Amino acid sequence: MSEHPILVTGATGKSGRRVVARLRDAGLPVRAASRNGPCVFDWRDRRTWDAALEGVRAVYVVQLDGTKLVRPFVERAVRHGVRRIVLASGRGIDDPHYVKDGGGVLEGIRDSEAAVRESGVEWTISRPGWFAQNFSEGFFAEAVRSGELRLPAGDGAASFVDAEDIAAVVVAALIDGRHAGETYEVSGPRAVTMAEAVATISEATGRAVRYVPLPVEAYVAELLRQGWPDADARAFADVIEPLREGRDAYVSDGVQRALGRPPRTFAEFAKSTAARGGWPA
């Protein structure tokens, strides 16, 4: 299969672009698919699917939340001759109480996992927890750069996982059939509270960053003052609930099982990100 391009959907995202980079570093042919780029791929435009899949034998599927598009995509991929599928899923999908899910995100992810398992080809599922990179290029990045992270997360903790570890697991599964049939739940090596996280970032950057825990309604009110629609503000507050309740505090063994080594610590993530200028002043 190394003679055929490996398709990476979501190639500009946190995990996708790292998967692309690792595959290219290994000298493997990659088709980096996104809505804007040489390989145009749009989940909502099925006319873009066939060209992306042409000649492909392995694919990394980064799904579009709140949809059930993975199933028809997998069916088309199999018709194109794809033999190996790695799916980006998520922790907590087996827990009906994990998060308030008014948008049907968890239902869509469950259907995607079922579609991959029922595909008849080799499959691997990656279930990452909260990305450490949310502090540098995601939900929390702007607040961290401002020096103050205000969230309704209380003193809850999460075993934040470095996206580099996620990408390493995905690449291993894409190029090695020994990972077929595995579901890798990936996390960092220990749970970190929000206060500990920003203290670690402060130490790595030499700049003071503080965490301010807020009541949920106070947080929603702040978002409303910033111009957020009420529904969006409350939905984002719901996203934070698993952090507040510590539902992602447990540690998973996916990195160790897939790669034979422990996952990177949050401190390692912070130091490497700071060294690359990940939190500009």
From TrEMBL:
Signal peptide: none annotated. Residues 10-174 form the NAD(P)-binding domain. It comes from the Bacteria. This is NAD(P)H-binding protein. Gene3D superfamilies: NAD(P)-binding Rossmann-like Domain (3.40.50.720), UDP-galactose 4-epimerase, domain 1 (3.90.25.10). It comes from Streptomyces dubilierae. InterPro entries: Ergot_Alk_Oxidoreductase, NAD(P)-bd_dom, NAD(P)-bd_dom_sf. Pfam families: NAD_binding_10.
